């Protein structure tokens, strides 16, 4: 089955990815017993919340002046596309039990950030305005920075 998303739907998925990232990082911060890493997770949650807002505004601009996108099949497409980063759980942070080591949580976070980068790289093809594509590119660069920061924290942990 081919999954096709409109730019509007692709941005909805991006919002979901960021919203789930906020939940994941907030829970990770609450479960972490290392103040330095907990603070890092809080900061990452704040950055992801900012990204969610950016994608929401882009989606609203895309929809402005256009009729509501055809939603036939959108739920299936969004569910499948949502698997890209956090799976289908409504709250992927619930996958964190508190029994994971700091190393495990950092590795999970790195993988989620990398998956986000892959999704956002493809997302640019759905965005009609060059200025909005540039914003997505800037978010990709920020997500890459998150990978570097998390990787440095991981290296300091082991």
Beta-strand segment tally:
0
The span between the termini is: 42 Å
**Rg estimate, integer Å:** 16 Å
Principal-axes shape call: elongated
Instruction: Tell me what the CATH architecture is.
Output: Up-down Bundle
Fold-level CATH name: Ferritin
Q: Biggest sheet, open or closed, and with what strands and sense?
A: none
CATH superfamily: Ferritin, core subunit, four-helix bundle
Reading the helices and strands in chain order gives: HHHHH
Question: Helix- and strand-based class?
Answer: mainly alpha
Give the class-level CATH name. Mainly Alpha
Explained architecture:
This protein has 158 residues and is mostly helical. It has a single domain, classed as Ferritin (Up-down Bundle), CATH 1.20.1260.10. The chain contains five helices and no strands. The protein has helices at 7-31, 35-63, 74-82, 102-123, 130-157. The chain is elongated, with a radius of gyration of 16 Å. The N and C termini lie far apart (42 Å). The mean pLDDT is 82.
List the helices and strands and how they pair.
Blueprint: H1 7-31, H2 35-63, H3 74-82, H4 102-123, H5 130-157
Helix pairs in contact: 1-2, 1-3, 1-4, 2-5, 4-5
Structure summary:
With 158 residues, this protein is mainly alpha-helical. The chain has helices at residues 7-31, 35-63, 74-82, 102-123, 130-157.
Can you tag this structure with a few keywords?
single chain, 158 residues, mainly alpha, Ferritin, 72% helix
């Amino acid at each position: 089955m081919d999954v096709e998303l409109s730019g509007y739907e692709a941005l909805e998925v991006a919002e979901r990815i960021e919203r789930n990232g906020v939940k994941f990082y907030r829970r990770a911060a609450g479960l972490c017993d290392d103040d330095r890493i907990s603070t890092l997770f809080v900061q990452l949650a704040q950055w992801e919340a900012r990204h969610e807002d950016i994608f929401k505004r882009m989606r609203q601009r895309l929809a402005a002046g256009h009729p509501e996108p055809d939603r036939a099949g959108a739920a299936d497409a969004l569910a499948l596309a949502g698997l890209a980063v956090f799976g289908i759980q409504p709250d992927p942070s619930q996958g964190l039990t508190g029994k994971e080591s700091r190393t495990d949580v950092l590795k999970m976070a790195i993988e989620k950030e990398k998956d986000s980068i892959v999704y956002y790289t493809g997302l640019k093809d759905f965005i009609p305005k060059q200025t909005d594509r540039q914003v997505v590119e800037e978010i990709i660069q920020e997500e890459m920075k998150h990978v570097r920061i998390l990787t440095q924290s991981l290296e300091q942990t082991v």
